[in-house]
Amino acid sequence: MDIRETPTAEAGMLIRRPVAEVFEAIVDPAITTKFWFTHGSGRLDRGKEVRWEWRMYGVSTPVTVSEFVTNEKIVMQW
């Protein structure tokens, strides 16, 4: 198989909570670790690199935030 483009993924879902609450749940690892990864090295913010870990699998990845508009948009590469 010949891959000609960098693989990418997009995800979305409907969450019936206030925007600010959902945004904070993604930005703050103290909240995000309750439903996604097991450890985050810091809060997400524009231009910042953090590390997310899934310790039960022995896996981690760097996460770089390239766009950040509070309560509107987060673009990250991981």
List keywords for this structure.
single chain, 78 residues, alpha+beta, Alpha-D-Glucose-1,6-Bisphosphate, Chain A, domain 4, 4-stranded antiparallel sheet, 2 helices, 4 strands, globular
Description:
- The structure is a single chain.
- Helices cover 17% and strands 31% of the residues.
- A hairpin with an 8-residue loop joins β1 and β2.
- The protein has helices at 19-27, 29-32, and strands at residues 39-40, 49-54, 59-69, 73-77.
- By secondary structure, it is α+β, with helices and mostly antiparallel strands.
- The radius of gyration is 14 Å and the shape is globular.
- It has one domain (19-77): START domain (Alpha-D-Glucose-1,6-Bisphosphate, Chain A, domain 4), CATH 3.30.530.
- It has 2 helices and 4 strands; from the N terminus they run ααββββ.
- A 4-stranded antiparallel beta sheet has the order 1-2-3-4.
- The model has no long low-confidence stretch (mean pLDDT 94).
